[in-house]
TrEMBL record:
The chain crosses the membrane at residues 6-25, 32-50. Keywords: Membrane, Transmembrane, Transmembrane helix. The lineage of its organism: Bacteria, Pseudomonadati, Pseudomonadota, Alphaproteobacteria, Sphingomonadales. It comes from Sphingomonas aurantiaca. This is Uncharacterized protein.
Amino acid sequence: MPISLADFAVAIVLLFGVPLLLVLVAKRNRRWAAWCGAWISVFILVGNAVEKLATGQSGLF
């Protein structure tokens, strides 16, 4: 199924914006950037696990 232009724009912002934000934060406080990166990873893994349990389909698992 094709995605809309708005969905594509949000995906691009997330793919490039979040890592860029973590890099910029790491320049000021490495520990805080590491915790933010860890919580983002946990959020993605838990979200995909819940999606897999709810629908039986997940892009990650």
